[in-house]
Design brief:
Residues 30-156 form the VTT domain. It contains 9 helices and no strands. The chain is mainly α and 205 residues long. The longest helix has 43 residues, at 162-204.
């Protein structure tokens, strides 16, 4: 399926890329990062206009984020049903909930590009938690700019090495994501320990 869609990219170009990034922001299993790198490669070869390609990818991502936020704002019960079913989606939703509650707009920004697998679920949770819409939108847009620029730029700058570089980049981003989650968990643990010490000190007094 992915190969078939990639084959359509030179013909349908930016509109197809915008649709792909939109769908990925709604938790649908489409490899948007891969498509952006491929589009960057096609742009470098002169098959696609680079500026329009970046704009289409960014527009699709921002619209997808807004739809996800709106769904979360109006469908908290739906999110609870996802959690109750268990599985990978429930795990991602649980992590996104913890991250969003503790970090708010920073969580939205990081989940656009560094923790992108959590991005759609952060959208839902941000809406359900009534995170202020201007705050969400600014964090979303700036994070999506980073995401689109990184991947389209990599594809445009390394078109000939695309097949070799993608697995390497994917592994590196996975490592960075894991390190970021570990850091956030460490900060949370530190906060809980500090709170525990304060409560213990108050009881002794």
């Amino acid at each position: 399926m992915t190969d078939q869609l990639l084959a359509l990219l030179p013909d349908y170009g930016a509109p197809l890329l915008g649709l792909i990034t939109l769908l990925s922001c709604l938790a649908l299993p489409v490899p948007a990062s891969l498509f952006m790198m491929a589009a960057g490669g096609f742009a470098a070869a002169g098959d696609l206009p680079l500026g329009f390609t970046i704009l289409a990818a960014l527009t699709g991502a921002v619209i997808g984020d807004q739809i996800g936020y709106a769904l979360g704002r109006s469908g908290a019960g739906w999110l609870q049903r996802i959690e109750s079913r268990g599985g990978k989606q429930a795990m991602a939703l649980s992590r996104a909930t913890s991250l969003t509650r503790e970090r708010g707009n920073i969580a939205v920004f990081l989940s656009r590009w560094l923790l992108s697998p959590l991005g759609p679920y952060v959208n839902f949770v941000a809406g359900a938690a009534r995170l202020r819409w201007p705050t969400f939108t600014i964090a979303s847009a700036t994070g999506e700019i980073a995401w689109v620029t990184i991947y389209v730029g990599i594809g445009a700058g390394a078109a000939d090495q695309f097949g070799y570089l993608w697995p390497v980049i994917s592994d590196m981003l996975g490592l960075l994501a894991a390190l970021t989650v570990a850091l956030l968990l460490a900060l949370r643990l530190r906060h809980m320990l500090q709170l525990h010490r304060k409560l213990g000190h108050k009881k002794r007094r």
